[in-house]
Amino acid sequence: MLLENKVIVISGVGPGLGRGLALRCAGAGADVVLASRTESRLAEVAAEVAELGRRALRVPTDVNDEASCLRLVEAALESYGRVDGLVNNAFAIPPLTDLSTVDLDAVRAGFETNVLAALRLTRLLTPALAERGGSVVMINSAVLRHSRRTFGAYKMAKASLLALAQSLATELGPRGVRVNSVAPGYIWADNLKWYFDFLAKERGVTAQQVYDETAATTDLRKLPEPDEIADAAVFLLSPLARAVTGQCLDVNCGEWHH
Fold first, then answer.
1. Which residues are catalytic?
2. 31-36: strand order across its sheet
3. Coiled coil located at which positions (predicted)?
């Protein structure tokens, strides 16, 4: 019960990592505030949280809209009276093309969701977090660790998110707020499963073969699942990490070393 009776706000709640974050936080004893643009996803995850015996507040939210984020913060404080943690998980895939030809407006749009939205929500929740000696976790990516072609805009956004987290750690530390990052590699959830099925059909092999070939590039010979990544976030939100701030914890089964 690392998060017993804490209140955690989670953005970008969906069927994959967002769901895993909500359920692992609830399993660790927290009540959660679920934010996403899709109401149906919030309802599904909230029902699962309730089955674990914890409360879940559903707040449809557009993280790119200041007023929408302000309503999220107000709803959380009205319902629970406090906020102990924030997980910035909202994400938009940047254009996956060479930087030499990429549409700059598309790059800007990626920054809005992947970087500025995290700053917006963190700023709005800072007073509440400071009252509780709270914690912020940014969900980053293993794209930080490589420079593969067509991933330039993606890496630009996530590198900026890392810089944001580190700078906020310095700014908010004197107020008792910790800010850290989790950088997943592959996430073995629905989107990746669909992609592996697609690759398997193109190659005329099984999806298991595609999985095995990919997993062979990691030290643990497996791909991380949402719950395993969420557990790292739970640790950073918990008192066990009370002296940890400004750090980035890679969760990639040893695909990359940092």
1. 154
2. 56-60, 31-36, 7-10, 85-88, 135-139, 178-184, 248-251
3. none
